[in-house]
Design goal:
By secondary structure, the chain is mainly α. The chain has one domain. It contains four helices and no strands. Helix 1 runs antiparallel to helix 2. The longest helix is centred in the N-terminal third of the chain and has 27 residues.
Length: 107
């Protein structure tokens, strides 16, 4: 068994796991933009492109490959956070994690 076969198998397992986790979480949370299948497809495309680049282009810079691998899950996490907290109006006097009840007590 060659090294590239082991790397390809491990990368495929990573892609499947990341895709399953994003799909499950997008279904549970109810992301505003797109569907769970669309976000899972984005993770497959970006992760698959990074794995393909790493295997087929041995001189590819590792930071670029890692950025490409993290792009899909990172974009999903940003959209997830916006879906969960994006409807609140901007208030420069409190942190986003602050509760509404704390503001009511002060007034």
């Amino acid at each position: 068994m060659s090294v590239s076969t082991v790397l390809a198998g491990g990368a495929a397992a990573y892609v499947l796991l990341a895709t399953a986790l994003v799909y499950r979480d997008a279904t549970r949370v109810g992301v505003d933009l797109g569907s769970p299948a669309l976000w899972a497809a984005l993770v497959v495309v970006t992760s698959g492109a990074s794995v393909t680049t790493a295997l087929l282009v041995p001189d590819a810079p590792l930071p670029g490959v890692l950025v490409l691998a993290a792009l899909g899950p990172l974009l999903y996490l940003l959209e997830r956070d916006d879906s969960m907290h994006g409807d609140d109006p901007a208030d420069p006097t409190r942190l986003p994690s602050g509760s509404e009840r704390a503001d009511d007590r002060e007034e």
